[in-house]
Structures are given as C-alpha cells and as structure tokens.
Design brief:
mainly beta; single chain; 7-stranded mixed sheet
Length: about 220
C-alpha cells in the first residue's frame, strides 16, 4: 500500500497563534500509515472574495454541493504548499471556532503518487469529534493546469466528518471538480490541499493546509 504521511498543525487563529507543520509554519502530512496536521483557509478559487458568490441553502442542516469559500485574511489567496519540510506559506487565519489538533493525510513521497493515477486525501481532529460537522477540500493544482480559461483550482463536495475519530476521506481526482474548463487531474508538479469547514448555508472556512508532489 502507498505510504501517506500524517502531520499535526496548530491553527492560526485571531489570537495570533501560528499555523505549524509538525511544529513549523504551514501544514503537515501523515502516514497513510500516518497523518499530518494543518491550519484553516478557504475558497473555490485561490481566494474567492467574501460574498462574491451565493451559497446554496441547506436541507436539515446539511450543506448543498455548492461551496462559497470565505477567506479570513488577504494571505489566503497566496497560500501554497512548498515542500514536506516547509509546509504551507504564508500563514493564513483559520476558523476560530474549529477544534484543535487538526490532522491531515496526503502522499509524503513522490514514489507514492504518479501522474495519471489517484491518491487519498483525508482529515480529522485528533481529540475532538464534533457532530454534524461537514468538511471539504480545495486543491490548487500545478501551473500546467492553469490558463486563461482555467484557474486550476478544484474542490470536493461537503462530506460529514465521522464522529468516531476516523478520517473524512476523499479520492483525488475523482471526488473533485472545478468551474468551466477546470478539471482535476494528477500531473507532474506540486499540489496544495486546503481543508475547509462547511457551514449549513454553504459558507466554508479554512481549517488547515497540506500538499504533495507528483513525479
């Protein structure tokens, strides 16, 4: 089985606490036999302005498929995963109401993921398991998938976080889509994964950042 790393990230909340990737700024990864933690940020595009799109209403507290990312600061637009050692930069404010100890999982070696293939992305909170808590992931793809008609940004539909401590899991690229000509695909390059808390009205707020490289 492909190895995936798990990392723990301290959220960058309004109190000024810095996001950490295993103790450094950014996010972390874990082992699919491991995991890593990351900090909040959101958006369907690299930084969709707050209120720029209309979120769909919820049914019984369940958010619709359309997500409206609500960045909490200007740094969100430039947030990107650099490498496994550095994590994600710059720091961006996360959802102040999110539980602590976010753990995320993504490939931790270029040997574990190949162009044209698939991979698993996952997240959980290590110690707190909130109920009716929906999450989604936004993936910022390599420059080769960006162009005049494509932002290269894709996003998953919301998924209910398990309440038993298990990870909420997504398969890339199958569970992701973008607007217009933007498609999800694994190609050579660096991918940034932003985890989001999706509220019943479709507004999504940044929880943490992770990423991986494809050889």
């Amino acid at each position: 089985a492909a190895a995936v790393a798990v990392a723990l990230v301290v959220q960058y909340a309004p109190s000024g606490r810095g996001a950490a990737h295993g103790g450094t700024a950014g996010g972390g990864a874990a082992n699919q036999a491991g995991a890593h933690s990351s900090a909040p940020s959101g958006g369907t595009g690299p930084g969709s302005p707050s209120g720029s799109r209309t979120a769909t209403g919820s049914v019984g507290g369940i958010p619709g498929d359309k997500i409206t990312v609500q960045p909490l600061d200007a740094h969100f637009t430039d947030l990107a995963w650099k490498d496994d050692h550095t994590g994600c930069l710059p720091n961006s404010r996360t959802d102040p109401d999110a539980p602590a100890e976010l753990q995320t999982s993504a490939p931790r070696s270029t040997m574990d993921v190949k162009a044209g293939g698939t991979t698993r992305l996952a997240m959980r909170f290590k110690y707190t398991w909130p109920t009716r808590y929906y999450v989604a992931a936004q993936v910022r793809q390599p420059a080769s998938l960006q162009g005049s008609d494509s932002s290269g940004v894709v996003i998953s539909k919301p998924r209910l976080l398990p309440t038993n401590g298990d990870y909420a899991e997504f398969t890339f690229p199958q569970d992701f889509s973008g607007e217009a000509a933007t498609t999800a695909a694994l190609v050579k390059g660096t991918y940034t994964v932003l985890w989001l808390h999706v509220h019943p009205n479709g507004d999504a707020y940044y929880l943490g950042c992770d990423g991986f490289a494809v050889s």
